[in-house]
Amino acid sequence: MALELLMGNQAIALGAIRSGVGVVTGYPGTPSTEILETVAKKNPGIYVEWSVNEKSALEVAAGAAFAGFRTMVTMKQVGLNVASDPLMSLAYLGIKGGMVIVVADDPGPISSQTEQDTRHFGIFAKLPVFDPASPEEAYLMIGDAFEYSEKYNTPVLFRPTTRVCHGYATVDLEEKRFEVKAEGFIKDPKWAIFPRLSYLNHLKIEARQPVLSEDFSSYRYNSVQGSGKKGIAAGGISYAYTCEALSSLKGECKVFRVATPHPFPEKLALEFLTGLEEVLVIEELDPVIEKELVYLCGKHHLPVKIMGKLTQHLQNAGENSVESVSKAVAEFLQIPIQPAKPSENMPALPLRPPVLCAGCPHRASFYAVKQAMKGRKAVFSGDIGCYTLGNAKPLDMVDTCLCMGAGITIAQGLHRAEPDAVNFAFIGDSTFFHTGIPGVINAVYNETDIVLIILDNSTTAMTGHQPHPGTGKTMMGNISEKIKISEVLKALGVKHIITMNPFNLKDSSAAVKEAAASKGISAVIFKSPCIAVADPAPVYSVDSDKCTGCKLCIKELGCPAIVKDNNKVRIDASLCYGCSICAQVCPFKAIGGAN
Amino acid sequence: MINCILAGVGGQGTVLASKLIAQTAMDKGKNVRTAETIGMAQRGGCVVSHVRIGEEIYSPLVPLKSADVIIGFEPAEAVRSLPYLKEEGIVIVSQKDIKPVTDSLANTNYEGTEMLDYLKNHVKHLVIIDVEPIFAACGSTRVLNIALLGAAAAADVFDISLAEIEQTIEKKLPQRFIAMNLKALHAGAKTAIKE
Fold first, then answer.
1. pLDDT value at position A222?
2. Which chain B residue shows the shortest CA-CA distance from A29?
3. A564 to chain B, minimum CA–CA distance in Å?
4. A248 close to B (CB below 8 A)
5. How far apart, in Å, are the Cα atoms of B66 and each of A238, B3, B52?
6. What is the pLDDT of residue B186?
7. In this complex, is the C-beta atom of A524 within 8 Å of any C-beta atom belonging to chain B?
8. Per-10-residue mean pLDDT for chain A, 595 residues long?
9. How far is A514 from chain B (nearest CA, A)?
């Protein structure tokens, strides 16, 4: 036993290592990324890969699980949408080695495009779901998840949320590691899905649901405590907020903690509901526990009033907090609380939307395209990555953004509706490999006239600089063949392909004009590494004698390193990476390099 | 229980500072929980780290009006986090403001001094740290987080001594950054004592 300060994601990784996981796959996505990175860093003989996307990750892990390996797949909630095809079918086939699919949900959302609730995927696919409430619990619970997976020959979902993933806590690590002896792949018709097999397995899955529900009623992290006529049901981090609220309010009631929202532990839930008059359900995202309790009350004719999101006692969207939960608990238990006094005459605080970093090559790329299209009708379809931040003013270069890889195909639909506009699709290198390629083929095949802009910064930047197929580095530390985006495009039949350094604004702009003039799908690859993986160039500075204070550099580029200084501008040397584009934009030649 | 809020702008190193506090407290046998801002906001957005040290901690998030200390990495971010501060809590803040691009574009003329004045009028225990001389002495602007940590330790806000944080820095930071950061830690502490 050894105590360590660990981030929830690190705890999940170490818990999986302790459980004898042999293959770990995933695709980066906040708040899940650090799980796979931690396994790769510690790596005691485990195969780890960043797969090209979540669907591939899940399938690679399924193959290893068919052969008896314990496997783990990691992704964020929207990643499971991409992996939902193999997930739904794998639920019918089952596995041999324990398989845990870790899907991190992001209430808020803090860094995501949706507030979807992965517990629904558990219900939809009829798979068990584990919902940890803290990092130390996640460390042990992931081991339980592997055991249940093998006991019922099914993949299981493990669903932490941001506050569990990105919180640190003291975790008591166990030295002993579970040993898995995989017997290897044994040929059997049960591994090939067919309608008849699906029907038979569907019967088995339906028969398994009540057995799992009964089993979960005695699961160690599901519990009923306290007494009284009122009860609170909570799951995940909301259980921690509930404990905090009850402790600070000195409130008392019956508390039902749900660590396995699916299959719902009905027997334990009935024990909780018995003798209660009112129940408050505290959970984030959707009212999953709440609906289960409403269903149970109906099924068993229990005269219990269930309150929560469905009754507007708690918010439907956004994150819970100690305050929101305390307020709901105080009202429920009729404990008077002092409403928080608003702070007096607070000065207007500056707005700080996230922005592209100083020196970011995407700023140059967006600017070059913007200049090239001045005075022309053009639509800019964006995608998921750091470059989504190109939406901010003054660039204002993201007209649409939907999901990974969608920019390329949205642009094609826009072209069908507005053929007189130049339809641009921006996509990053990692996103191109993830789900961008089929969209390119679609445009070539259907002869759709769009301009594809590849923002190749040689890394997966937004999630913290993970390697991808274009970088030639793997998570096992190997150097593999770099897949060149220009060659992929050529092989797909894109005729007009040009690669540019975006920091040369004039030539870049000319290249964009040329691409826009060519028929069919054309591509400009802007290749320049992310500032986090490149060495900074000497910083630039403003000659205050030459600066007229026109602020064109600020108005055109919006670089965080350029700040107003009295009536002129100044470059903050601690932020400047020496990218040079402000010097190219300044009409008075007032900005210069280190020499 | 000691509750601490670290408030800054993405890229200022709040996450590392909170980790160093938590690690030091844990090494002293205390129970800790933290919550971090990781993701999109790290690109120049507002970031807040919550650190809780004590026996029975349920939530990683500090409730409003419960923080014993706010470490403000930037004047406006300290003000933004004030609702977390206890009546008798202390605020340690860097005087150096960071002007966001939105401010330059919208001509809202944000000035850190206005925020510092507000703090002076509304916070009983306030320590303002002039970080520029520390940056100059250390030859880097990347030591802000450690300098503020030094100031907080010197003000004895979380029952952790300077020597104890020093040990954690030596244990947890890469070798080549240790000397520079220890220098910043002590410079921050000295500035706080003078204040």
1. 98
2. B39
3. 7
4. yes
5. 19, 7, 10
6. 96
7. no
8. 92 98 97 97 93 98 98 98 98 98 96 96 98 97 98 98 96 92 96 97 98 98 97 97 96 98 98 98 98 98 98 96 95 89 82 93 98 98 96 95 97 97 98 98 98 96 93 92 97 98 98 96 97 90 95 94 90 91 97 79
9. 32
Secondary structure (H, E, C), A506-554: HHHHHHHHHHHHCCCCEEEEEECCCCCCCCCCCCCEECCCCCCCCCHHH
Query: How far is A20 from A142, CA to CA, in rounded Å?
Result: 11
| Whether the Cβ atoms of residue A537 and residue A503 lie closer than 8 Å to each other | no
Domains and CATH numbers, chain A: 2-216 (3.40.50.970), 223-332 (3.40.50.920), 361-527 (3.40.50.970), 541-592 (3.30.70.20)
Chain B residue closest in CA terms to A321: B61
Q: A482 — contact with chain B (CB < 8 Å)?
A: no
Going from the N-terminus, what domains does chain B have, and what CATH number goes with each? 2-194 (3.40.920.10)
Q: What are the chain A neighbours of B63 within 8 Å (beta carbons)? A: 244, 248, 322-323, 326
Give the one of A241, A243, A352 whose C-beta lies nearest to B46's C-beta: A352
Q: Are the C-beta atoms of B60 and B50 separated by less than 8 Å?
A: yes
In contact, A104 and A29? CB cutoff 8 Å: yes
In angstroms, the CA A157 to CA A152 distance is 13
pLDDT attached to residue A341? 72
Stretches where chain B sits below pLDDT 50 are none
**Alpha-helical runs (H) found in A75-154:** 77-82, 84-93, 118-125, 135-151
* pLDDT for A431: 97
Three-state DSSP class for residue A568: strand
Please give the pLDDT value at position A376: 97
Beta-sheet pairing, A167-173 with A2-7: antiparallel
Angle at A211 between CA A206 and CA A216, to 5 degrees: 125
d(C-alpha B175, C-alpha B187), whole Å? 20
Q: Quick check: helix, strand or coil at residue A426?
A: strand
Flag if B38 and A5 touch (Cβ within 8 Å): no
Please state, in angstroms and rounded to a whole number, the distance separating the CA atoms of residues A494 and A452. 10
Taking residue A55's Cβ as centre, other Cβ atoms within 10 Å add up to 22
Is some CB atom of chain B closer than 8 A to the CB atom of A321? yes
Say what the pLDDT of residue A306 is.
98
Burial of A179 (0-12, 13-18, 19+ CB in 10 A): exposed
Q: Do A354 and B40 touch (CB under 8 A)?
A: yes
Instruction: With CB atoms and an 8 Å threshold, state whether B26 touches A5.
Output: yes
pTM: 0.96
Q: A592 exposed, middle or buried (CB, 10 Å; 0-12, 13-18, 19+)? A: middle
